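Milestone M4 deliverable, item 7.
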Amino acid sequence: GSGMEVDDRVSALEQRLQLQEDELAVLKAALADALRRLRACEEQGAALRAR
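Output delivered:
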């Protein structure tokens, strides 16, 4: 019946949402890492200019 179809569609959406959340977590981690490296580079640059 149509009830099954709706359940399938909902579970498919939930699966996709879960995948997107996982990808988002990975992206956030990568972004945090990039920002950390950028700050380290800026500090290095500042130290070099201070001399």
